[in-house]
Amino acid sequence: MEINGHCDENFSSVLEAFEDNFQNHDEVGASFAATVEGEMVVDIWAGHLEREKNNAWNEDTIVSTASITKTMAAISALILADKGELDLDAPVVNYWPEFGVKGKEHVLVKHFLCHSAGLPGLSKQYKLKEMTDWDLMCSDLANQELWWNSGEKCGYHTMTSGFLIGEVIRRVSGRTVGAYFNDEVSSKLDADFYIGTPEEHHHRVGNMIPPNAGDMESIEELNHHLDFTPGSVNMRVMENYDFEEDHQAIMATPEWWKAEIPAGNGMGNARGVVRAQTAIANQGKAFGVQLISNEICKRANEVQISGIDELIGIPMTYCMGYAQRDEPFSVFGDPKTTIHWGGNGGSSVIIDMEAHLCFSYVMNRMSGQMLGDKRADNLGYALYAGLKD
Length: 389
Known about the structure:
about 400 residues, alpha+beta, Beta-lactamase, seven-stranded antiparallel β-sheet, four-stranded mixed β-sheet, 14 helices, about 30% helix
């Protein structure tokens, strides 16, 4: 098969793993990129935009990266903190006064970044298109009671985390989270990634391919840790969504692409993700640009809370906008200095602060797994093998 892009000779094993994903793991279209010491060492892509293989995945193809978008909102908040404009340890009401009702006066900004705020879901069920209404979503969250006392438990804020930290960013900077990210990150680092994708880029967007039958047959086994008991946090969050809607169709519309949903609708490719996140791995510097200070990079890896996640039911260690790379995830590098995030369906970004290494995998064929993906793991292990050589 044809793999496009470039790969330093030290990482030839990555090319083999990338090809193996297509041959043995039902890959359709994908990209992978990695930096070491702030410079790109791998930037490859291959495959097609659909199972029928009519259109090739190109160098500038962008697709939905799902929850990888959360890391873009996080780095935006970290930059605001680095500038002295946002205190991550301050009460949210200092910046968003309307939020301070129904017992939420003591919620801190950092609780939004470490999934411990106690607002993992919305107050009622919404149509997916309604979730593109920023003011509606923020109003819902501002007027809710906490599901638990902030900072005492962690529970993955699947969709709400982006609205929460995004509204703080908007209140502080006067810009939407998408505009702030574009101005302060992507424009400075030439990162091809968007929270709210402008129309001029829509012709490059590839639709996502749903999990295949084999993936879905094993989804119960893969998600055995989820609590489907009525009234559980997981079920309350699931009730936010109208499952009679064709979500896949809605997410393939220009209206969805243009909306700013910083927990889940960012568009990009592996190169764009890596260009945006490399500074965290490299003491704040990437591609010759000192984006942020080394001190704020350390805060990104500052553990905020650990424990059984109330939503996903497994042990998690949440930092400031990221999670530490530890079990049950495959471990690359030292778990204490390696942070990560993943997107529903398989995309991922890993930041190894000790090795000054950042890499990302972005694809269009979604797996049935909620956490982790063997295709991304294959590439990660191959990359580290080349790093040791």
